[in-house]
Amino acid sequence: MDSDEDMETFEVDSGNESSSDDIGFNIEDQNQNPKDRQNDIEEFVFNVLSTEEIVQHMIDCIKEVNIIVEIPATTTRILLNHFKWDKEKLMERYYDGDQEQLFAEARVINPLASRSSQQPSTSSSMSSKAKVSRRCPPNSEECEICFTLIPSNLMTGLECNHRFCTQCWCEYLTTKIMAEGMGQTIACAAHGCNILVDDATVMRLVRDPKVRLKYQHLITNSFVECNRLLRWCPSPDCNNAVKVQHVEAHPVTCKCGHRFCFACGENWHDPVRCSLLKRWIKKCDDDSETSNWIAANTKECPKCNVTIEKDGGCNHMVCKNQSCKTEFCWVCLGSWEPHGSSWYSCNRFNEEEAKEARGAQERSRAALQRYLFYCNRYMNHMQSLKFENKLYASVKEKMEEMQHHCMSWIEVQFLKKAVDILCQCRQTLMYTYVFAYYLRKNNQSTIFEDNQRDLEAATEKLSEYLERDITNENLANIKQQVQDKYRYCDLRRKKLLEHVHEGYEKESWEYMD
Amino acid sequence: MSALPRRIIKETQRLMQEPVPGISAVPDESNARYFHVIVTGPEDSPFEGGLFKLELFLPEDYPMSAPKVRFITKIYHPNIDRLGRICLDILKDKWSPALQIRTVLLSIQALLSAPNPDDPLANDVAELWKVNEVEAIRNAKEWTRKYAMEN
């Protein structure tokens, strides 16, 4: 977190320094509005943890509990995992509830009960008959898995006292870890025994470093996955996790540079909320729109219902389905026969059936058009956002050029800042179209669309300026021009988000189903 | 194929020496991991008097993973489907390497005595078993007579 905070502070500083002469436009100062959640980013505390730090954090969590509850650390881990690493919940149950039941639920033997009172459970009753009939020499036992006589000191088991030879244990654990991908939830090898194998036992019995590594990975993964305050950075090949103080839809930035929403793991998607974004992504992913396209662009044969796409101008359709071959009119879907030579009279055939077919088709065509309208704009901003990343390179050149003209490094940082803001605007715009797709029209939605239009227009101007106009401009003018433009964009972006958040608070947004 | 593990050799020996009443399991001549199984229908069940053929195969990583078992004889049972596949927890996620061929076959025999239509594999059979048990049992007896008593 420290390094991220530094970066954040640094950027703000550089902006302020270069803008000291035009206080009227200073957005950073204007937006000290408590409703402005953008500014909460600084207040939303989060840490980025590397894999090693995650393991350390896990150990710390266990220690914290163990200071109060004096049970073996391995048992504590299983208990904590059972409560999804919620210490308070565990403590509450530990001190207020039935402890026996708690241990049973978490699938561990009560470590406080004396060991002698523990009898092996009756699980292997079916095979125990066979066992009784076989006599073992002193100091050795038969392993029920490999059927071999093993010296007793090489037999081992959990607190449940189901003993097997160490080699079978190793093979059993290896299968569970490597083949079944189990970590925290591997049970005792005995039939019907659900007591969990603790991590110390696994590490004692498994020597293969590959298996041990996989096990540690599985354990860490389950720790992060079931811990509400942790989330893996979704960026590919990044092994960091982000830790927060409380769960909220807030942007967090990993050390790898990836910025995402802590609550859902998607790219930061303000102003649309996680739930709607999830619906949108699902809609874009599944092929419901393919079927919409089919509905909008094809018709079904009125007789055999085969799907037909019209590829020529003629409206006299002959179904190609060999067993059907029905002739009908593409326009009214009525039989072709009465059309004869006077095809313009086909509006005469307003049979209820044909009417209905057309109505349904128009509805799905309208729905498709509406979806495509928002989707195109969403995709377009997404695409532009990708292209804007190229701007960083060209802007860097410009910055170097300016430094050759007696400007200091700090003085030219405004150009990078401009691209940063441009990207932010693109990202916000992208998600405004998701928000708008689900929005039902009302007075507030009209204001939202006005804000969206203003931001879009301002963003396009900034984009155009940075990409083209900047090359023709006098170096001295550039700074003023760019700063004016990006400040305006930033202002519009903040206004738009502010308005949407206000709407969330006042519950003025209505959604389509 | 790799050498037969000691566990399989021993288990087969014991299975031959101390057979389970009502169950026979004989390894195939050419493949010691493949068993020809015959289970007699349990008393007081609709399968009584029937002889049910099954096949049992011990996979490469047995006993770490469960044997594969399938009914060859057609059987009318809510937890056994048309292909003879069996819905039994110890053959799936409840498998333990401490279980054996013997215990698996005993469990299958027990499943014949106590069908569980709430966890069905053959949906139509399970449905009838729930809404009209008398008719379902009649069907099971009929199938037993037809398919499991021929020879």
Automatic annotation (TrEMBL), chain B:
SUPFAM superfamilies: UBC-like (SSF54495). It comes from the Eukaryota. Residues 3-149 form the UBC core domain. Keywords: ATP-binding, Nucleotide-binding, Transferase, Ubl conjugation pathway. The keyword Nucleotide-binding applies. GO terms for biological process: protein ubiquitination. One of its GO terms (molecular function) is transferase activity. The active site is at C87 (glycyl thioester intermediate). The keyword ATP-binding applies. InterPro entries: Ub_conjugating_enzyme, UBC, UBQ-conjugating_AS, UBQ-conjugating_enzyme/RWD. GO terms for cellular component: UBC13-MMS2 complex. Belongs to the ubiquitin-conjugating enzyme family. This is Ubiquitin-conjugating enzyme E2 N. The lineage of its organism: Eukaryota, Metazoa, Ecdysozoa, Arthropoda, Hexapoda.
